[in-house]
Amino acid sequence: MANMQTPNAVRGTQDIIGEAQERFIYVVQTFERISKYYGFESVQVPAIEQTSVFARSLGESTDVVSKEMYSFEDRGGDSITLRPEFTAGISRAFLTNGWQQHAPMKLSAHGPLFRYERPQKGRYRQFHQIDAEIIGAAEPLADAELLIMADQLLRELKISDGVTLNLNTLGDASSRDAWRSALIEYFQTYKDGLSRESLDRLGRNPLRILDSKSSDDQKICQDAPVIDDYLTAEAQDFFAQVTSQLDAAKISWTRNASLVRGLDYYRHTAFEFITDRLGAQGTVLGGGRYDGLIENLGGPSTPAVGWAAGIERLAMLIETPLTSGPETIIIPLGKSAQSAASGVLANIRRNHISADMAYKGTMKKRMQKANAKNAKSVIIMGEDELERGEVSVKNLSTGEQELVALENIIAALQKI
Ligand code: ATP
Ligand code: MG
Q1: What pTM, to 2 d.p., does this model score?
Q2: From the alpha carbon of 63, which atom of ligand 1 is closest?
Q3: CA-based, 20 to 30 A from 396: which of 23, 98, 182, 312?
Q4: Is the residue at 218 inside a domain?
Q5: In this structure, is residue 58 part of a structural domain?
Q6: Measured from the CB, is residue 62 less than 6 Å from ligand 1?
Q7: Residue pLDDT, tens place only, 339-382
Q8: Which atom, in ligand 1's list, is nearest to the CA of 272?
Q9: Which long-range CB contacts under 8 A does 32-36 form with residues at least 24 apart?
Q10: Ligand 1: does its nearest atom lie under 6 Å from the Cβ of 119?
């Protein structure tokens, strides 16, 4: 075993601790709290699925399916993929478990996802999302409800400054087909200026050219045909209903007629909340209506709409420092005080107050530790005081210190 090297973490993965983890947990907790106000039911779905679940629903020519999936053959010879997103797996679960009988269902989920991407700030190979879906609802009410919920989430996380809701409609199937043909015709004439990637998309999935990150492509896209000229009356009416509900809820939005999402399954509403603070990683939350997806998975035609947001990107935007240190720290002085301290500590925690013990080093060191952890108070347990059944409780923000009888510690802490 000579020269054994410590293995590295897999490229694009992260070990999260400290403040970053505090922000991460805060995002998840805020999401779970807000989803309850909106009547969402929390679900768990597997992190692995049959590869066909994603290949059939996301679209073969999308970036995610064509180059970002972690797929492998398992020991039984099945093709398995680590989930790159939630929607397809939740839709599969909807079919597998016969959840149709409960439709419409409002479902929420969060957890790790995997995409083989070039790692950079805000872009990882294992990342995490919060996700909200309404399955079995064809009405624009569902689209609006999800958007209003997303807006509330960003507000309550206090990261809505500099974030704009970009909204588009991709129309119904016939609007989309007509637009698609017009786009092909248009891009054919600018073929020479397109990036290689977009040339490739032209044959298979021309809408995706509008989503290109190349600046040359983006210039060509500026004059491309817009969906509005191809929308059926029905599709126009659907979009008008979504926007009037947003207006009623005082949600501001901008029309972005070239917004197409990275996946093939979107119909009607498509949206992204974009921040001006994360550069190319500016999309913090995105989603739309995916009425065709469940049918692609072999199920009955089922209207659905949803969104997902990257937890790491939301967490990066949070500015208020979040502290999670213990509320109080016990400092026992001497051996017999130490065992008494264990009893007091247990009692404090059983009363749902976070607490810790600083049992090593000089008094000065231990006080420094309490201050560094941002504790509100310290409980000093000296042997003489203990014999009288008392401890000293010091309020670290005012500096006041008082003698407190052992049985009154909880009450004293609650006052601080
Ligand atoms: P992008 O255009 O940034 O690649 P996307 O269109 O691929 O985003 P979606 O599939 O819509 O993203 O996923 C929704 C959200 O998940 C994104 O807005 C982003 O916040 C987050 N996300 C997507 N891919 C990654 C990644 N590799 N690392 C971290 N977060 C990600
Ligand atoms: Mg992507």
Answers
A1: 0.89
A2: 7
A3: 23
A4: no
A5: yes
A6: no
A7: 999 999 999 999 999 999 999 999 999 999 999 999 999 999 99
A8: 18
A9: 32/108, 32/110, 34/149, 34/152, 34/153, 34/156, 35/108, 35/132, 35/149
A10: no
